[in-house]
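Incident review: delayed structure delivery

Summary: a single-chain prediction request sat in the queue longer than the usual turnaround. Root cause was a stuck worker, restarted by the on-call engineer. No data loss occurred. The affected request and its eventual output are reproduced below so the record is complete for anyone auditing the incident later.

Affected input:
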Amino acid sequence: MERKTLTMRVEGEAITQIAREQCYYSNKFDSAMNILIASLQNEELEEGQIAGIALAILDGRAEIKGTYPDGDYRLEYLEEQDEKWKLDNLIGKLAADLERQKKELQTMFQKYLFVLDSLGEWEKNRLNDEYFEEFQERLFEDIPASAEIECCSGLLKSFMKRMNDKEEHTTEDYGWLEPDGTFHGVEWGEHAKWADDWLQENLTEEEYEETDCKYRLYNAGDALVDRGWILLHNPSQGIAFPTEKENHKRTKAQKEFLYEYYMERKCYSEANEIWKEGE
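Output delivered after worker restart:
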């Protein structure tokens, strides 16, 4: 029967480096301490002394040197603390991270409450069903088990229609329509910022300052509307409706775009109104 001998060697420098990386790079203080304590076992040292040495190593004040079992495996205290490894710095960083996470959690909770307060019972129940199917728990609590979906309001019907038809058209739902028929899709709620960005990019500095002075009490969108642009938007996130200057005469290109826009969304009455306007 063949026998083989397996020799284990432990390098002190490697143990020191691994423990410090666990502590400072992976934020695994317990793991780092366990590695060091296991590597420092000595009949002459008590548990409290070993833990103190482990802390000194993590704090850059001591290091394990040599190789076990070569006879030079030892602990060395440094004359000067290694500035790269300082527990004070780590604790400060962790405290700052904790404070940041607390603020992020407060912000998320504030947004959660805002959304919760804005949703109707039928919306909460729908989201609860979808969330439960995915994660086997409820998203919102204290909601009646059977909340009727009331689709009687025009706003809700418009919203539901847009959601149901969203995948059946290629044109973005909201945005700005130029007099020449060019449409710029814009995320819901971002139309004012988009307008201001466009003005900054396309006007001279002097023109922009004059425009900003004139419209700053309202929003940059008014400046585009006065230039003959049409905003396609809906505050309730339903099918967009045109917002334009009073008595604005739409260009042929704008009429053609609006007609196709509403036809894609099966809004035939709106499309028919655009068609009549072109007669």
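Verification: The chain has eleven helices and eight strands.
Action items: add queue-age alerting; document worker restart procedure.
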